[in-house]
Structures are given as C-alpha cells and as structure tokens.
Amino acid sequence: MLCRMNMRRQLRRTLRTSCLIALGVLLSLSINVLVGAPSIAQNAIIPNDASIQYDSPEGGVDGEPPERINQLSNSVIYRFQPDATAGENNQGLGIVKSANKSAAEPGDVVIYTLLISTSGADAPTLQVVDTLPVGVEYVPDSAVASIGENDLTSFTVSATNRVVTFNAFVPSLLQGQQLIIRYATTVSPDGVRGDGINTAVASDIEAGLGSVSDTFRLTIRPGILSDCGTILGRVFSDTNFDGHQQPGEPGIPNAVIFMDSGNRIITDPDGLFSMANVIAGNRVGALDISSLNGYTLAPNLFRVEDNSQSRLVHLEAGGLARMNFAVTPTFGEGE
Q: What total of structural domains would you count in the chain?
C-alpha cells in the first residue's frame, strides 16, 4: 500500500503558472518528466492531461468579477509494453525513449532521448539500435552520451537509412548506472506519410542481459504541406497568339475568373491572380469574358486546348498549379 501511495505521488504532479498573454500570442510550455516507477504492473496505463483557467472576456454581470473558465485539454495515454515492466526486461536491462516534443511539422528539429539502465549486471558490450519513423532523419554528429553527470569519452554512431546504431561505449555501463543518449533529427515532408512510430532496442547478449525495447510516437502534422494547394495565373494581352506573355504584352486588370468551387477571383493591376488553400484534385477555372473591357479571348495557334475560356489543372496536395488566359483587343465594335 505504501509503495502504491509513493507511486501515485510520483506520477501525479501539478504545475501552476501565471502570466499575461496578449491577443494573438501563442504560449508554448514544454515539460520533460522521467517516470521512475519500477514496480508498475504490466499493461499499466497512465493518463495525462492539462487544464487552463482564464477570466471570461465578457467580464462580470452588474459589476461582479468576470466568470472564471476552466478548460480541459485532450488526454494523452501512456501505455507500458506488455512484455516489460517500465521498459525493463527480466534480466534487469531497461530502456525509456522520449523526445522534446510530441508533435512536429516538416522542417522541425526533434531531439530524442534514450535512457538505458541495468540493474542485473554490467553491460560492457551494450548496443542500442533506434529505428526512426518514415521521414525523420538523423542529424550527423549530433549525438551526445553521458553516464550520470559524466560525458562518455567515446562511442560509435552509425546511421543507415532510418536505423541509427550506438555501441562501443567508453566507459561501459555498469550495474546500477544509467546511460543517457541524446541526438537530433529533422522531419522531412515524407514524414506525413508515416505513422511517426519508432522503436529503440537495447541489448547486451554477451553479458546475458538479453534485449529490451521501448516505443515512442511522434505526431507529424502536415503544416504548410496540407491537403490543399495554390492556384496562380495571369490574364494578359497576347499579340502573337502563342499563349505566352512576352515583353510588350501587358496584363489585364480587373478580369474575373470563376473557380469550380464558386469562388470569384479578380486580377490585380498587373493582370495577376492567386488563390490559396484550394482543395487538391482536378480544378477548373473559367475567365468571365464580360468582365473584360475591350478584350476577347485570343486564339492560340499552337495549343488547341487553350482556345477556350476555361482551364483544367491537376493540383497536388501542397503544390502549385497555373492557369493563364490570353486575350486580344476587340476591333470594330461600335463602327
């Protein structure tokens, strides 16, 4: 019973902070914790959530203080592996994998931390193999390692594809000690295709310690590489009917383009237009001829499909697609 109470005090902590946040400012608070609870039962589930309290922006009623609002966050569940107790195998070799952030976007840097411990015997031939998620790449020469407060004299790091291997630790890990390895990774655009899950395995077969693994999941958000794309283009006066704007062929301002989504776009003084956050796929834009003052659609002598006031493009997620419309002055009207 005493052990359970101590564990509860160790796993449940409340952090309180108070500060003034201006409108439009994002406050990010990062907390790294190490749960050292070797007596946690197998299949243990640890929920973690947070809450924020703030005064209602509407203020109080009839001079009363503003209402205090308590907003609860989503709950994150930590589940220990069913074949290990807090990341430790039956021979006393343990590993815990963590990162400095739980979510990232392409272009972000993520710092991973590996904590390896041994309570069964010394680990002179310890090897740690970490398989990174899809789209997460190891930064060369970024790894550092320490036992306690002392940095390691030397160790070997090799990275092949997504597999990073650490070994040849000097000094070696002794019974009762903890080895901490930290290294940097970058998230590439390919990361959005994966599940963000990676597994680290520590082993020392020669010392009879067997192997043990721990898994960490990084949520990879698309960021600017979303399911949408951007369409841009121009409306211009085509004097030689080749479909391309050359010097001396001015852009047409205030021309109207209708998208298949119903959106209406107006060209700027240079005849340029763009539209962001367009859903990926086949998109159609049509030039409104009635919006042109003294111009009509120009014939294209080289591309038959451009002899139309509409354009069909295929827009990739996170990509760009171009719609250009060539027009020519109308002559003889009113004569």
A: 2
